[in-house]
Amino acid sequence: MQEAAVPVGTSYLLRFGRALIFASLFLVGFCGGLIVLNLTPSSVTGKELQAKIDWIDRHSTEVDTIFIGSSHVHHQISPAVFDEITLKCGNPTYSFNLGCFGMVPHEMERVLYTALTEGKRFKNAFVAIGVGAPGTNYPNTQRAIWWHDLFETSIVLADVLSYDVPFQTKYGMLQDHLRHAVLNIGKMGRWRSLFQQPPDTPDLILEELSLTRGYSPIARTAGNEEEYDKLRHALTERMADFEQTRNKLIAQAKVDDGARELTPQEQVSLRLIRRIVKRLESRCDRIILFTPVGYGATFPNLDQYLEGSKAEYWALNDPIRFEQIYNTDKWANLTHLNKEGAEEFTEIIANQFCSFLSAGAR
User: Fold this and answer.
1) Distance separating alpha carbons of residues 164 and 266, to the nearest angstrom
2) Gyration radius from the chain CA atoms
3) How far apart are CA 120 and CA 182, in angstroms?
4) Whole-model pTM?
5) C-alpha dihedral (285, 337, 74, 314), degrees to nearest 10
6) Is residue 12 part of a domain?
7) Rounded distance between C-alpha atoms, residue 148 and residue 107, angstroms
8) Is residue 262 assigned to a domain?
9) pLDDT digits (tens, 9 = 90+) for 220-268
């Protein structure tokens, strides 16, 4: 008996249906693979930052206080000085400087996520904040690629879309982040990390971090006299710029005494700050958000946006309250304190923290 022929139209529909099913299965598998790879720890970030993360892993039961931010934390906050003062005021701490030069806010968010895994807890977290674009520093480097995992990339892309800049600038930022996300999947060793552990930070570097606890002041020392003198000479040459920034901060401090609407850029920064606070609240007893000396702007009236959270905000780049720190003898360049200034700035933070605790802070 001869089988009935399948109509041509029906044949095409069957083929199309099978192709659609196979394509759907491929897409589901591909997306599932990306998710698995992004849940798998990627290989290390830049060596300086990775060393600090590894040190925290080894000493998480000892450290109770962390400082995190860009070079304005890395070069300007001394854990030894901070701990000495908190010990004297009856609230001893063991702190670590997790700051790193050029750290952008979304990178900080990823670092905090990494540093707070596996049940780690800290009593105090000091987080340097400001108002900045959702961008990337050190493009195409291992460090920049590292923090562009699936989760953080989706967040930064949403922030870029709502950032108030010309379309051409916004388009360039989106391209930049997407490129790093692709590199994160393809070149960060995620495939290898399924089968082997990334290399450990050498013990010698970890031992050095135990001595410095992450602090790296800008100082005139044997071997770098010429480099330091060039920095100081450049500062002298640009004294007009230094005074202009100082006067701008004084004017801004007076304006920010009154309420005003946030700019679109500040609203994007506020969303990121709230995410960081939410991430820290379950792992830290106290959260101090602060604007360090060297930043060109404070965050206006931030306290009113933090009600109901554990976070406090300190604007420490205030030439009116902290006039002594704006003596140019205490600066290494236009935007960073030298060792003398950094240790004095640390004293300001530590004394304010002691007063904060004495006033009955939770």
Assistant:
1) 10
2) 25
3) 30
4) 0.83
5) 20
6) no
7) 8
8) yes
9) 888 888 999 999 989 888 888 888 888 888 877 766 555 667 788 888 8
| Residue 21 included in any domain | no
Domains: count for the chain: 1
Beta bridge partners of residue 287, listed in sequence order: 125, 311
Task: Write the DSSP symbol of residue 56.
Answer: H
Helices 264-281, 150-161: crossing angle, 10 deg rounding: 150
What amino acid occupies position 346? T
Exposure of 9 by Cβ count < 10 A (0-12 exposed, 13-18 middle, 19+ buried)? exposed
pLDDT tens per residue, range 170-198: 999 999 999 999 888 775 545 544 444 55
The answer to whether residue 124 sits within a structural domain is yes
Structural domain range at position 187: 47-358
Read off the tokens for 177: 């982040």
Which residue in this structure is represented by tokens 């006033």? 359
* Cα angle 345, 346, 347; round to 5: 90
